[in-house]
Amino acid sequence: MRVVDVAIVGAGFAGLAMAGALRRAGRDDIVVLERADDVGGTWRDNTYPGVACDVPAHLYSLAAHPNAGWSRTFARGQEIQTYLQGVAAREGLGDRLRLRTPLLGAEWDAVDAVWRLDTGAEPVVARSLVLACGRLTEPHVPDIPGLESFDGPIFHTARWDHSVALTGTRVAVVGTGASAVQLVPELARRGAQVTLFQRTPAWIVPRGGGDIPGADREHLDAHPGDLARLRADLYAEGEQRFASRSGDAAASAAARATALDHLHAQVADPALRAALTPDYAFGCKRVLLSDAFYPAVASDAVTLEPTALAAVDGPMLTAESGERYEADVLVLATGFASAQQPYADLVRGEDGTLAAHWSEGMTSFGSTVVAGFPNLFVLNGPNASLGHNSAVLMAEEQAAYVVRALCERDRRPDPVLRVRPEAEAAYTDEIAAAAASTPWLTGGCRNWYVDDRSGRLTLLWPGTVQAFRERLVGTDGSEFFATPGSGPEAAGAVPAAAASPGRAASPGPAAEPAPVAEPAPVAQPAEAIPIRPHVHPHA
Asked: At what angle do helices 465-473 and 391-411 cross, to 10 degrees?
């Protein structure tokens, strides 16, 4: 059986970024496995009314595939899906992309030093495995008594049923996170009567933006340097938001005031305003962008129930407050299984599964490699998300790190990269120290960034994108066990970036971004990072 050099699981932003980085580095011996019938990840799966990105579109693009033709400041989901389909076509993946090919299991074969993948069809054998499965793949369905008794249509926002008529129906929406904030105004606009169950209100700031005139799109297409500068400006704006999200007193107070002014300007009823006002620190939960949510909630089309849905009995929904409501359609806007990655049970390394290794929360070195799992790389996994800037940037930085690591693997007489447990533990301690005083842990809310089993911040990187880039570029291979004739000779060597307290690569809240540099319009191969020091916001 032929052994492929790199198998990539997932064909969303991260998987396509990884495939492109490998190909530009001259590494064409790859396969991309995708369980669905098309690329696109979350933008393929989420088709609910109003779905859009809250990162400016010119920034929410791969560096190697800038797009001057975005039609809106914040692109709608279908436009992003079309963009990713175009990326896959331009990358020329051909038969390297295998659709309708799920990962059913992956096991490290120490004898042959390969990963053996079960796809339910022909097995795949690879020298290295990249998991680009995403954080927003498996919908979270809350454990609500009687939920199965609801006698009308019931579905999650990520599995929207377009056959269900909405006009004139009573629609109950459970949750007030990012999906609900986009969905509820659309339901109201389409003539539904909405009951909105709010467990916890969100901090919401103005969105702005709108349609991008055709003349502007033509200009950016004709002047790629201007598009690169626009991306750099948007990135710099995003990096500046880190201060308000991570607990800087002055920046947080200013952002909080902006959010409260936005609420007061759009909701006249003092009682409704009070119900929509968070009682936790700004940044503790994901900060949302919307100009339409508050007016919709304040309209006659929406009834806000300021407590969670507690029980379901046929068409009757009972809130924690004791209030009861009837509904024809029940929509769960309840997020995803993000802190506990669904694929973790499927991947078996030297001593057990990823799920077992992560039983107290995800851990890694560099947010990308994991002790006990040789030649394995995880994108969008431990501490690789952001609360202030574009997560696409993080995936691109990880992809560049993977390319460098594979070059290190190829230089070794024993072509196996094994992460030293001490390196993983040290990186985990770095994250914990940087996160300890942030609102994500101290802000008085429950968020999806923190693993309930350990209370550790396991989803977010507690620093700027620039700090993450420097952290990964600053590695020297000593995160891996040494092998004869390559790498550091001392198995106990400390990774270079961790050995110098206070270096800019530290993920701590005090990390400052470097001066803005114009990004290259096309990603560079091998050692270069897809986007230069400054190029992206929000995620």
From this structure: 0
pTM: 0.89
Q: Which domains does the chain have, with CATH numbers?
A: 4-138+337-499 (3.50.50.60), 147-203+248-332 (3.50.50.60)
> What is the spatial distance between Cα 184 and Cα 182, in angstroms, rounded to a whole number?
6
With 60 as the cut, is the pLDDT of residue 484 above it?
no
Contacts 24+ apart (CB under 8 A), 468-471: 468/367, 468/394, 468/397, 468/507, 469/397, 469/529, 469/533, 470/497, 470/503, 470/504, 470/505, 471/366, 471/497, 471/505, 471/506, 471/507
Q: Could you tell me how far CA 67 lies from the centroid of its own chain?
A: 21
- The H or E element containing residue 429 is helix 421-435
Cα–Cα distances in Å, from 150 out to 163, 167, 313, 314, 329? 18, 20, 6, 4, 9
Q: How far is Cα 317 from Cα 278, in angstroms, rounded to an integer? A: 24
182 CA to centre of own chain: 18
Tokens of 499: 């050995």
Average pLDDT, the chain: 90
How far is the C-alpha of 314 from the C-alpha of 212, rounded, in Å? 46
